[in-house]
Design goal:
The protein is of the alpha/beta class. It contains eight helices and 13 strands.
Length: 380
Amino acid sequence: MTIVLVTPWLLKGINTTTYATTTIQFPLSTQGAKIVDAKGNQVLLRGVNWFGMETELHAPHGLWRRDYREMLAQIKSLGYNTIRLPYSVQSLRSLEVSGIDYKLGANQELQGKTPLEVMDYIIQEAQHQGLLIVLDSHRLNDKRIPELWYGDGFTEQDWIDTWLMLAIRYQNQDNVIGADLKNEPHGRASWGTNDLATDWRLAAERAGNAILALNPHWLIIVEGVENNVPGQRLSGHWQGGNLEGVRRYPVRLSHSDKLIYSPHEYGPGVYNQPWFAERTFPYNLYHRWEIGFHYIAGQNIAPVLVGEFGGRYVDTISKEGIWQQQFINYIQKHNLSFTYWSWNPNSDDTGGILQDDWQSVNVPKHNLLSRLLEGISFTH
């Protein structure tokens, strides 16, 4: 079955394309470096991060300006097929939501709802729009990203129990395809050390296998760490970006065909890392990307989903623009899945696909990303 998607959003200068789309059938799984559907057809995730549920508002941001249905329709219309939806454990245990104008269209449906019920509405409308959802345990509390999967007043069991609740709640919601277990392990987080207090690889196995015991259809998405990997070759990485340990210490799941690895990658607009000042920039980046994460796909170990990348500049002159141009070319060349950071314009160091009015699109940024976009649909 072929579906035609047309992607204009009433803005001059936006690249628009008509996409011939193969309908995918659930559940998704992995086959070597590919994500595949139930028929064995490859699926490339082309997504955005729409954040806010992990903050003190307990709801995706921008709903003070937009109807949530309209927001989702715009994401789909631009050619994206996936939303990475961050949350905090504290948010999903709360009864309070703020930052929503309930007078705006369908937002009135959200009035009086808990954060978890708001998530239900977002996910159900995403399915109606033909959008896939990756859930992201972004924070434990509402204020910061912790180094480890416990802390900030929460235990490892709190973290796992939240995942189990979500795995049961959405086990019949086809478009919820997976669990990004923990956002950006860093600091003390290690990989392959066998230290139960810090070894993220072991914690990912505990959580991933607990989820799969209840919901065997979900993809389990495992980010890297920052440092503390025995024998790592690169001296520094982004938080969550170091997947060098997979070579010697792969994650072991009860369903090995559900595992995806997920680095995060940024430019100097987020932090001016030493490698941006090297004489061989930007060509040194390819060496870093291969050692840090791409060998996993290159050697057919597992698929790679770039869970976050983004930046304000997309030109061919600034270092950040050059980095972003090069990275998008790299994703395209190697057929990697991604979820861009961010849909929101209010990410201080990266900006977003939307402008500050929460309506209009950053045209140069979208036009660059449009090189990567291809439509998909799915059967319920």
